[in-house]
Amino acid sequence: MRMKLVDVSPLSWIVSEQVRSARGSWNEREGVKLTFEDEAGRIGYGEASPLPGYSRETLADCWGVLSKLRGTTWSVGVEPEKALRMLRSNGTDQELAALRFALEMGYFDLLSQRLTADALALAPSQFRPLLLRSEPVGIPVAALLENSSVEACVRSAKRAMSSGISTFKLKLGREACWDLELTQLQALRDTFGDSVRLRADANQHLGEPLAEKLHVLGKFKLDFIEEPCDSLASLEESYPPGAATIALDESLQALDPDMLTTDPPAARSLRSLIERGAVGALVLKPMALGGLARCLKWAHFAHQAQLKVIVSHLFSGPIASRWEKRLAASIGTPTEAQGLHYQPTHSAP
Question: Against a cut of 0.90, is the pTM above it?
């Protein structure tokens, strides 16, 4: 199979959630739509939409590489593992995670259109959800709560619960908001008791004193707290007994799952935290980690380490959102709500 990048065009959409994080808030998102064509004239699409203030690359970085890639044809074949290796090694700049994801979307979109039911049955099991033309259904999701006030937080949780969602996530770590955040968590427990599951996400900005804050969060019976600080070594040093379990997200961008058997400092800290039971989950965002193939490798590592896998997003656009759902169906821990409640509302003018 050959795939040619025939067009790149701007993409924009509205983010409806009114959520503020330690890294900022976004009302409108922008990205790049990639259009691919195979030798039979089939059309497939990809999306590159790095998140400002979070992703390691920018949208301008993606546009710069795409200006050179437009018109490129890749001979990728129909075996996903070989094709993904080829796209990873020859497709684009290794540092542009969002662009690698976009290329993989295009590949799977084209491949899914040409596979027969018999051929799909022969595909490796981890790839089948990525090759189905129908959208996956029945994936449990966690709702990201509004956090401007205690009232808004509880109100958004009640709305989510009325639609059948019982896992909630609250953003923490905004400047001078620690008391408000604790009050919001307590209000959620007072309102819903243990009938709901709670998660928190500090985006590496929980702040000092870290050990004391992690200990305090333990009393709220959180599923986990995502990324309390920006250093695995600091987390290893500060993590106290009885604290809330940790989920890793941003930290994974600086790690390579293929190198975790070697001995760089971050890998040592990660192994130590897992052995102590401090880390219990990985939050995998393909737009940030470099695509589907990288997330599959992280999921394999998580399975071996007995960690839970949560698939999430960067307030992605309509193309990437579909592939994040398919990835969740492939690798997400079935008993855990996935971070996919968000949907882009409509394209921005």
Answer: yes
